Hints:
Layout: E1 6-10, H1 11-22, E2 25-28, H2 35-46, E3 58-61, H3 65-77, E4 82-86, H4 88-103, E5 109-114, H5 129-132, E6 140-143, H6 147-164, E7 168-173, E8 181-185, H7 189-195, H8 198-206, H9 223-231, H10 234-238, H11 240-255, E9 262-266, E10 272-276, H12 281-293, E11 298-303, E12 305-307, H13 311-317, E13 324-329, H14 339-347, E14 356-362, H15 371-381, E15 390-392, E16 416-424, H16 429-443, E17 447-454, E18 462-470, E19 483-488, E20 503-512, H17 517-523, H18 526-534, E21 538-542, H19 544-551, H20 558-569, H21 574-589, H22 594-609, E22 612-614, H23 636-646, E23 681-685, H24 695-699, E24 705-710, H25 712-717, E25 725-726, E26 734-739, H26 749-753, E27 761-765, H27 766-769, H28 772-779, H29 794-797, H30 816-826, E28 830-834, H31 838-843, E29 861-863, H32 870-898, H33 902-913, H34 921-934, H35 939-950, E30 959-965, H36 966-972, H37 974-982, E31 988-993, H38 1028-1033, E32 1039-1043, H39 1049-1061, E33 1066-1071, H40 1086-1095, E34 1102-1104, H41 1107-1110, E35 1116-1118, H42 1127-1131, H43 1135-1143, H44 1145-1171
Parallel strand pairs: 2-3, 2-4, 4-5, 5-7, 6-7, 10-11, 10-13, 13-14, 14-15, 16-19, 19-20, 20-21, 28-29, 28-30, 30-31, 31-33, 32-33
Antiparallel strand pairs: 1-8, 6-12, 8-17, 9-11, 16-18, 17-18, 21-22, 23-27, 24-26, 25-26, 32-34, 34-35
Helix pairs in contact: 1-2, 1-6, 3-4, 6-11, 12-15, 16-20, 19-22, 20-21, 20-22, 21-22, 32-33, 32-35, 32-37, 33-34, 43-44
Amino acid sequence: MREKVYKSMDGNEAAAYVSYAFTEVATIYPITPSSPMAALVDSWSADGKKNLFDQEVRLVEMQAEAGAAAALHGSLEAGALTTTYTASQGLALMIPSMFRTAGSLYPGVMHVAARTLGTHVLSIYGDHSDVMACRQTGWAMLASANVQDCMNLAAVAHLCAIEASVPFMHFFDGFRTSHEIQKVEVMDYEDLRDMLNWDAVEHFKQNAMNPERPKQRGIVQNPDTYFQSREAVNVFYDRIPEIVEKYMNKVNELKGTNYKLFNYYGADDAEYVIVGMGSVSGLVQDTVDKLNAAGEKTGYLQVHLYRPFSKKHFLDELPKTVKRIAVIDRTKEPGGREPLYLDVSGALNGVKDRPEIVGGRYGLSSKDVDHAQIKAVFDNLKQAESKDDFTVGIVDDVTYRSLPVDHSFQIENPKIIQCKFWGLGGDGTVGANKNSIKIIGDNTDMYVQAYFEYDAKKTGGITKSNLRFGHEPIRNSNAVTHGDFIACHNQSYITRYDIVNEIRPGGVFLLNTTWDDATLAERLPNKVKKYLAENDIKFYTIDAVHLAEEIGLGRRTNTILQSAFFKLAEIIPMDEAERLMKEFAKKSYAHKGEKIVNMNYKAIEVGYQNLHQFDVPAEWKDLTVVEPDVDQTLSEYVRNMMLPITELHGDDLPVSAFKGYESGYIPLGTSKYEKRGIAVHVPRWQPDNCIQCNQCSFVCPHAVIRPFLLNEEEVKNKPEAFRTVPAKGIKEYEFAIQVDPLDCTGCGNCIQTCPAKEKALVFEDLETQLPEQKNWDYAMTLSHKENPMNKFTIKGSQFEQPLLEFSGACAGCSESPYAKLLTQLFGDRMYIANATGCSQAWGCAFPIAPYTTNYQGFGPAWSNLLFENNAEFCLGMYLANGQQREKVTMELEKVSNAIDDADAKKAFKEWLDNFNEGEGTRERSDAVIAALERLDLDGEALEAKNYVLDHKAQLTKKSFWMYGGDGWAYDIGYGGLDHVLATGADVNVLVVDNELYANTGGQSSKATPKGSVVQFAAAGKKTAKKDLGLLAMSYRDIYVAKVALGANMNHLIKVIKEAEAYDGPSLIVAYSPCINHGLNKGMMYATQQQKEAVESNYWQLYHYNPELIKEGKNPFILDSKEPTKSYREFIMSENRYASLLRRSPEEGEELLDASEEDARQTYERYKALAEDK
């Protein structure tokens, strides 16, 4: 018997670990939340880890999930055991190939972190809608409920696929299980080797396609034989339950488990039984225990093997005493019943004394499920008439399907310590807590669990880390709501969110704050004070912000706060905890260099040494709590939808709140009401130093710093603290730069960009700048003024209102300034088709709309469909607009032909003659509308006039933009993009190129340069970056450019102007440094990094204008100069390159030399193009 090994890991790692053993080839494509599985496989392979065949796994990243599924099928066809990892829309893209793989009886395996499919909206969170869409593909389907299941049943999936000659899908709940960390017993590869049917492996390989034993597959069959041949497969599926049972028993014998196809838990004589699968299982089992202890007769039947669904095994496990069954599905099928319910109903057909069956839905899109909801399902079964087709966990006050829930029903094990940490995305809180739970799990005899909640705002959003540990197994799968220890890592949260009410009486609360005791007593809301006092909470503070700055860690407070947690939690002796934390710090940060490791060592030391206990005054118990009034002047949407959700009360909204928004529509311009106040430092304007260049506004990712022009009346009425100076070159106005402190993220790009000899902007603590909010509010009331400058200049563009503001983009984001600029130039008439990715995540995180309207109510029409088909989606909008404008043109010509009014005819002719001209289209359209409105017509002319006025929104020439990242344009969407560009349609493309898949965590794309260390290229990417621009230029009728905002702002504006005006397709590729690059100086220098990228020839600037061909000129203009800075020094300023030399010095040197040579050759190629006569 081999020694048992335990390790703390999440579900993704558990599944990946086992899959690696059985995998020869892995074909993958990144998608949240499954990407970590493939990233781990890639990393292990790069490190030389061996599978059961004594080889490293050969992993290939495809251009899309459809490609990954096809490559999986091809690899299986040629005789290699092949695996893939996916979720959600990615899984849906694989379905056509899945049918073929199952039909070919190949032993492929896919591990799925089950995630919601996009419907009326996109959701990245977990349920079973994706896997249930695959139930008829012929893949066997095996469900895991927790991390240990992921380890054990992943093995069963691979073993059974090989022996059964049928592909297996092993799935588990996305985020809830995929990202949950538990201590698990690790499978030994030698045990897996012993269990593997090597004869079946050899049979598979000997029957694979090979010219040495040729045969033909993929044939076409006629109606006379298809039906029969399809039924011939039955024997393979009939034996799957027996094979799965066999390997489950092998695991049971090895590990002491009790896996069955269906596991029953509860009273032997149960009368009421729930049937379900996935992460809800532990909650149901807890509830069954509590109810049965009170004398009830309940049970839970957990499904492991979902396909094929074995009626025999189901009935064998179901107690014969059952009177009623509730089948709970974590998916919704509109207009029909859910899959598991149908399967259970079918299994009970013909059963004597058939129990009554009801079904319902729960936990869609990772909605938290607790014991009270499970009890509500059991309570429903005990009613005289049980509600069928129910929902639980929401309030349905529209179709009345929801079950009432008694929230006082709770199951808490006092032996389990529960903790919760509120963090800011990107501050390291989640990473530190992953380390903390592993330290506890791997160095004590405790059971552990960690589950992490994220919002959609990327870095800068709310994170919640739920940690549990104790000496008994932990089955809870719900969020911590009664914690022994709660920490708030961001000061702004304590005045906005209900945090302390999640602390149990006598518990510990830690607040990271810059406030001293007096300020704390002044600023804490009465609601917080009262709860702390009434519940005897031990209250501690620490100023991790300034401690981190003193050490040199900038915003990264995570290690300091981790140290404080270990000191207060007293789980491990502090000296031992310090040693273990330092070991993990070295492991976590070694790839970033010794300096970063040592800074984290220092952070650990100061963390536990700088805690301060705040004595909670007893009189706080007597404080009066008054809930703030909601401003009734706000729109209904903001009052009743947006504010409750941003205050984290979205779970409380009933179904009726979404009446009118069922299709996923939301109004524009709501981000201005959020006021997150998450910055530590914000810029302060120093007017005496300002040269009024407006570059600070130009580079701001969130539109929180803007220039304003004030007339005499506005200067007279301004607040006393509102500072202005005479506007340079604009005599009638005063000039001001105003900062919005509560919407600022404190990135500092404005400060670094300021070209003034003495900086016109300096950083100050947010607290000192809060009075500026009043000045910002005043600035928002200033009158609209026609731009006194050319908007196609750096300075002039910033006098245009940005119609993208206060988005959820990362602090220092390089993508959003490009989009913001587009809205300033064309926003009142632009369509935006936004590819799935970062720009979609920060551009439409419900309920916030950062795109907004101008003073006339016009603004961008923004929408997203999917990742892979954004170009085609945009083309569809373009075609629809063209058809409708053509109709308006026909009707306007009817009016023109029927009148003699010279002024009206002139207005109509001006509009018709400039039909496709964007600049001036608003004015020409307004003139047409005014002329029509004054015409007195009848008959057909009147009908035509009314038609044009009813459809006047079609008069302006619209500007169509498809916007997305390199993952879309270079990879998954390239085929569609290429096709749309080839149509000649007058559409524009802006690709924000950060050279990796940023939204899914930093995976390689075909835009990733050689030598870059990213996920799926852990040893450095071996191939060169794709040149998207050159490919587009081969058509010769596409306007193409490469730009970098920080390198040359004038070039950027010129290119955008020309591209939009060009009557045909345009493609602009924009360099966008990303937090995933690991900039040594941080994202505060992202704009400067773009400049240095061009100066070192890492990135080149050019534009290709087909209009010049008509003039007999060279259409290609190289706008970059010869490099003036070192390429190697530039790339070594980013960890994605520097880490390569730390990992593989010799190979790294070769790769980075080759990368520099690629850049040199690219520049020489461009020079040759520019010199071509």
